[in-house]
Amino acid sequence: MCGIVGYVGDNKSLEVLLGGLKRLEYRGYDSAGVAVIDKDGHMGTRKRAGKLQVLVDDLAERPLGNGATGIGHTRWATHGGPTDRNAHPHLSADGKLALIHNGIIENFSELKKELTDTGASFTSETDTEVAALLVGREYEKTGDLTESLRRVVGRLEGAFTLLVMHEDQPGIVVGARRNSPLVIGLGDGENFLGSDVAAFVEFTKRAVAIGQDQIVTIRPDSVEVTDFLGNTVESEEFEIAWDASASEKGGWSSFMAKEISEEPEAVANTILGRVVDGIVNLGELSPIGDDALKDIDRIVIIACGTAAYAGMLGKYAIEQWARVPVDVDLSHEFRYRNPIITPRTLVISISQSGETMDTLMAVKYATAAGAHVLSVCNTQGATIPRESHAVVYTHAGPEVAVASTKAFLAQVTALYLIGLHLAKARGTLSDNAIRENVVELQAVPDKIAEVLRVSQAEIGQLARWMTDIQSVLFLGRNVGYPVALEGALKLKELAYIHAEGFAAGELKHGPIALIEPGQVVFVVVPSPRDPDSLHPKVVSNIQEIRARGARVIAIAEKGDASVLPFADEVIPIPLAGTLFEPLLAVVPLHIFGMELAAAKGLDVDQPRNLAKSVTVE
Ligand code: M6R
User: Fold this and answer.
1) Assigned domain for 331 exists
2) Is residue 360 part of a domain?
3) Which residues are catalytic?
4) Which of 404, 409, 617 to mutate to test the pocket of ligand 1 (most atoms within 8 A of CB)?
């Protein structure tokens, strides 16, 4: 969590820092701060608790001298509450060195004791301040900012990205990273550092990802990357694939509204270029190779939150098409229970940000244990894909709202493509069957667009009627079950309403006790057309809860008259094969979560207590 931006160039550092922080604010929004060396060589800092706007307003009232060197930070609090004092940057004892940090310094108590015993005093409750004081002390000895940071990072345990600057060193910002993201932006007579490319995409499309345990020194005309021992490291440049406008609201009421409207494109773009003659061909899997894919005897999907629900859908598709057993594990549960991994295990990690610490640690564990590791990721240059053997990028475009929407659809799409690629490699589906599924998948974007066109207004109305609601349940069977879980998560995180998703078959085993008159229950109803469909069973479940007074909102295939007598509302979705229905049924639930939060006057893009990428364990 926390967003970091650094700049050296001409006299516009405040503009760059505040613009970058605006784009990175999704990473944390408890407080924000900047440090800038002005044209006269004085370093000024300003930091304020609250959202970035509080800092912006403060700077408008009490301007800080602008200059050519600066660092900026937006915080998600870990050690110490969200106060002005705990906001970053933190300073060295003489106040001349400023430091910002993303991550957690796990041995900070020990270092703090050492500093206190040798006369240091602290102004905050953060773990970060120990790093600022330590680098400051090293600088007094060496007068070299890069060397000072290098000496300190070797002593830190945990995860960190650190940026430092010093009043006596205008035109230099130094960064270091371990298990936390940092990307360089290459400009003309100016250079940038950021937690992700959003920090500087307005100014340059040229970027370089910094590897694990590396240090970077940027000056206006140079960039130098070394490892923690000082050895020069070659880094590969990449081009940022999206425009600055892609990470702007562009007239929408919220990023989330914009991102839901982009769900059709997210699916279409993820398929684009990956189908040849109707057959899925994922060249990205070549580092693992079709021989190894043929030989795998088990897949483990690891992810957190919404990405894990995408993984659950991936399980249904991959097992059906590629006939290989798939387990879905939350990354943090997988990592710490001594899981069984063999050289025939394929681990698929899913992460929109590519920085989720729980998933990153699980990926590293799986790689070390000898599994083949494939990542599904939406962010170029992120850490998780670089720690994996192969990556399939979802092309959903930047997702800024904290609640994941279009990325979920793109993740499911990528997993379905992987399932069809595996089916071809393993010979478990005929080419005709693969082609039929590809046609179904390619039809999904237009069908999502239809759901958005037909249902948006009606769902908005429904949400406005429900602003006083205390609890909502979501039911689904088979592929409808992960959809129910996703619907419940959206409502919890956006509207702060108690919500639970259940497998409908589980109802009678306990949860039905929750049903009392007026209880709102969303039910994901499968198509009645499929001969193997669980439709009759779900209709029975609806009757059971209706008999106990539940208010039922059914998401059902259009024309499905059988649910009409039992549902208070029916949200229709277009016809699709069973495995493809979730990609449609989830859309009304994304809209519902957003509309209910908006109707309650809540911040749809930045819900309380959350951050977009969870980069601490
Ligand atoms: O960046 P990731 O996909 O790894 O993030 C995983 C979860 O933190 C994320 O999906 C989270 O659950 C969202 N807030 C859900 O809307």
Assistant:
1) yes
2) yes
3) 2, 612
4) 404
Looking at the fold, whether 224 and 360 belong to one and the same domain comes out as: no
CA-nearest residue for atom 4, ligand 1, is 351
The amino acid that residue 509 corresponds to is H
- Split into its structural domains, the chain has a count of 2
pLDDT in tens, 255-272: 999 999 999 999 999 999
Q: Can you read off the two tokens belonging to residue 40? A: 């006269």
Specify if 617 maps to a domain: no
Q: What is the pLDDT of residues 192-235, one digit of tens each?
A: 999 989 899 999 999 998 988 999 999 999 999 999 999 999 88
Ligand 1, residues 27, 309, 352: which to mutate, most atoms within 8 A of Cβ?
Answer: 352
Residue 179, pLDDT score: 83
- Mark 277-302 as b/e (b = at least 16 C-beta within 10 Å): eeebebebbeebeeebbeebebbbbb
Residue 554 host element (H or E): strand 551-557
4 vs 484: CA distance, rounded Å: 35
Query: What CATH number is associated with residue 94?
Result: 3.60.20.10
What are the pLDDT digits (tens) for 281-294?
Answer: 999 999 999 999 99
Provide the pLDDT confidence category of residue 80 given band limits of 50, 70 and 90: confident
Convert the pLDDT of each residue in 56-73 to its tens digit.
999 999 999 889 999 999
Distance 458 CA to ligand 1 centre (A): 27
Residue 380 lies in a domain: yes
